[in-house]
Amino acid sequence: MKISVLGPAGSYSEKAALLFFSKCRPDDEKELMYSPTIENAVLNLFNEEQPADFAVIPLENSIEGAVGISMDLLNEKEVTINAEIIIRIEHSLLSLETSLFNIETVYSHPQGLYQCRNFLREKLKNARLAETDSTSKAAQMAAANPKRAAIASAEAGRKYGLNILETNIQSVKNNRTRFVLISKNDAIGISKSKEMMDSVSDAFEKKNGKMDLKTSVISYLKNDQPGALYHILGAFFKHNINLTRIESRPAKKELGDYCFYIDFEGDRSDEGVQDALKEAATQSDRLKILGTYGRLSE
Amino acid sequence: MKISVLGPAGSYSEKAALLFFSKCRPDDEKELMYSPTIENAVLNLFNEEQPADFAVIPLENSIEGAVGISMDLLNEKEVTINAEIIIRIEHSLLSLETSLFNIETVYSHPQGLYQCRNFLREKLKNARLAETDSTSKAAQMAAANPKRAAIASAEAGRKYGLNILETNIQSVKNNRTRFVLISKNDAIGISKSKEMMDSVSDAFEKKNGKMDLKTSVISYLKNDQPGALYHILGAFFKHNINLTRIESRPAKKELGDYCFYIDFEGDRSDEGVQDALKEAATQSDRLKILGTYGRLSE
């Protein structure tokens, strides 16, 4: 089983992938494919020679919000969400050096730099900040030169032989990222995904004894229908369906044209959910169903 | 009059600021304060020695979506939106070189790299990509070494003595960014802002002969009230108020806690708007009004 994640080794995406496989597929032989970018991690699903079975990508962070490129890829590519995986993000400052004093450049993913900006301003205000495609890439960069530091997980520090100068340096201590495990539709589409996850349902979180399922859809609202979003939310409200997230993304035609990502509690095969989705479809030019899936947390 | 923008000279933020001042305050003496980051551009309003009168910051792009840091600053700081300014974003590839062949590194703001990723993949697939805090900073970096190129505006290229190797290289040709002109509340608060803009109302876009006004608010929904967002949208719908944008941002407490940015057509002093806002307030733990403002477009 091949799983595509943001690399190099030691990324939070890898951590999410490993959590999923240790809980749901502990006996499978697995191979991690490390990709330089989130886009490449998803494109690996469509690789003709060596396709990945799954990709694990970050969708939103509790401080920084939506990961735009991941949301766009869910929309553009024919993929299914099979599971969500919640990972605690605890950033450390890592370096070959043992003191902050000699550090000239701090590397991290833009979200890492952003989440730790108060620490950087207080403790490393003369250091240059340099963005990398992943936090583990930053750790790799820091391992090449003692004048460099990285913001990444303590695990990444150990992996690249770095000292851990400070831990838990992000401004908001309760920092989590929500990852999704996705597959190519014509490999593991929505129905097969459900079946597959049901077979390991014990691994997932429960609510009232049942797997706590969530469904995700993307709606392109009908432009000529005033209040289309209001009516869609009304359909869910009427059927007592809890929305857990509403996020807009540009529809990429005109400034001011959006599509909406809606996550809600429930299984897409539930009767009430089906009714609500039918009503949502009448208010949408296009309604894409991304999947029904369970949750794993660290 | 001091205006704080993302620098160095030649940024799209500067272009937005100059458009505003040429249309609304052509006779004022103005001084641009160039800031290395968006956060610094806003903090300049609160500088005790040399406060800026206004800051111009990007809020959303038609391809890449919301600019998270700008949205967070509107929420955290006591500022008023005085105007929105829509700028066409046409990226060029700039270098001291005249051919693509010798370029080793391409610099740009992350949004610039993202918006031009198809071009980069096709034409410069071996070049290293390096992120900068602004597109004009990228142009400045490219001017230091012929092996470098920048993605920035053609104007920035001319400013830094670079060749324009290709123009209009972003994937979606119709690419616009919405900037906002903001001021510190206790310098130019909401009422004074209205008065000030009314005095130059001819500069702004019209609808049915009147200034085409928009109002922006941020709502923290009451968590214990199911369907709170649905009811808020209903209040606007009932009063025939068109929503132009709804965007969620993390409330930064728990993953899954959001606040909502809502933009709608109309003046906050209109009776219908006031009624809708009153209803919205009953569904909100906190409702912050960012301002009522007109629009300028390139």
UniProtKB/TrEMBL annotation, chains A, B:
Residues 217-294 form the ACT domain. Residues 2-184 form the Prephenate dehydratase domain. Keywords: Amino-acid biosynthesis, Aromatic amino acid biosynthesis, Lyase, Phenylalanine biosynthesis. NCBIfam families: PRK11898.1. This is prephenate dehydratase. It comes from Methanolapillus millepedarum. Pathway: Amino-acid biosynthesis; L-phenylalanine biosynthesis; phenylpyruvate from prephenate: step 1/1. The gene is pheA. One of its GO terms (cellular component) is cytoplasm.
